[in-house]
Amino acid sequence: xxxxxxxxxxxxxxxxxxxxxxxxxxxxxxxxxxxxxxxxxxxxxxxxxxxxxxxxxxxxxxxxxxxxxxxxxxxxxxxxxxxxxxxxxxxxxxxxxxxxxxxxxxxxxxxxxxxxxxxxxxxxxxxxxxxxxxxxxxxxxxxxxxxxxxxxxxxxxxxxxxxxxxxxxx
Length: 170
Hints:
There is one protein chain. The chain is mainly α. The chain folds into two domains: 2-78, Winged helix-like DNA-binding domain superfamily/Winged helix DNA-binding domain (Arc Repressor Mutant, subunit A), CATH 1.10.10; 82-157, no CATH class. It contains seven helices and two strands; from the N terminus they run αααββαααα. The two termini are 31 Å apart. This is PadR family transcriptional regulator.
């Protein structure tokens, strides 16, 4: 939410439209309309966004327009550049970061490279344990190593030579 608000001053209705099921962001990262408005309230309470105006609405009351604070923009920029540290966060958090970088016309190359380093570390740790324990433990490590390989294939599919991540399938 904060990263979307950091793109430009906006109102909850616009953010909810982006994150609705099947929408540009919502097809990968769905946020319900009530959650959008609750999040806006929390972001205001934390001083990360402030009301900067209102926009007339043809359906209901005026829409409050919010902008992120300077420190919030810095926080978002830092977050967008940081790789995820847990393998299970690749599916949601990393893909979200890539989508947000694409919306900013920013290259994902540095993030992808940093993510590869993290994935390599996870693989190294798992490889050290893959032959330990009983058959169930070995099966679990094998399953987790498959996830490492899938994450690596995903990173390979991101077109790092372009400012727009292109995920290939097939």
